[in-house]
Amino acid sequence: MLCCMPGVAFVPALLVSWSSAAFIVSYVIAVLAGHVEPLVPYISDTGTKPPESGIFGFMINISALLGVITMYIRYLLIEKQNESSHFVRSSCNIFSLCIGLMGCIGMGIVATFQELSVPSVHDIGALVAFGSGVVYITLQSIISYKSCPQWNTYFVCHIRMAISVISCIAFIPMIVFASQISMTKIDWTPGEK
Fold first, then answer.
1. How far apart are alpha carbons 109 and 165 in whole angstroms?
2. Are the beta carbons of 90 and 146 closer than 8 angstroms?
């Protein structure tokens, strides 16, 4: 089984490193090209105009693929652990995997349809990516608690749950403020709302 193969632990680390690089590289290019202001632009704004849009799209699609691989490895790991411990129903693990895969599809949509080109599709992809991500993180936190103390420490479970809570708290204002915006625009002039 893939999850029992030595060396697969590098995949989640690669996912985090690659995703971080995607955001940083597109941000630096967008700032240097004068396409965004350097002070806290939206992530999507840094991947809207060429040349950073191509780099952003490519790198985020690779991140989505790495996310799929990471989630599948986690799914297999839980299935293998569950064979001896029976700490969670297999259907819960499959449901968690499906939610995570939906989030990765949302990432792919965000990467493929730029914010200014097709804003409604981009926004739906972002909603699916972030919403599914919050649900996936929460489900994985619950599964981790159910596997204690045999397969996880309570410290790790508490950290996962803290990340879940922070994600849920951050998701709510994202939805509220995104719903207040009636148009997508990067460059604002004085006097505009």
1. 26
2. no
- d(C-alpha 54, C-alpha 48), whole Å: 9
* Residue among 117, 116, 111 at smallest CA distance from 67: 111
Q: Whole-angstrom Cα distance, residue 79 to residue 29?
A: 42
pTM equals 0.89
Dig out the tokens for 97 from the structure. Answer: 């995997």
Q: Which amino acid is at 146?
A: K
> From CA 109, how far away is CA 29, in angstroms rounded?
22
Taking only the tens place, the pLDDT of each residue in 1-52 is 444 567 788 999 999 999 999 999 999 999 999 999 899 888 888 888 999 9
Q: Which long-range contacts (CB under 8 A, 24 or more apart) does 54-59 make?
A: 55/22, 55/25, 55/26, 55/29, 56/22, 56/26, 56/111, 57/111, 57/112, 57/114, 58/111, 59/18, 59/19, 59/21, 59/22, 59/25, 59/26, 59/111
Residue 184, both tokens: 């997508």
For 105-145, write each residue's pLDDT tens digit: 999 999 999 888 888 899 999 999 999 999 999 999 999 99
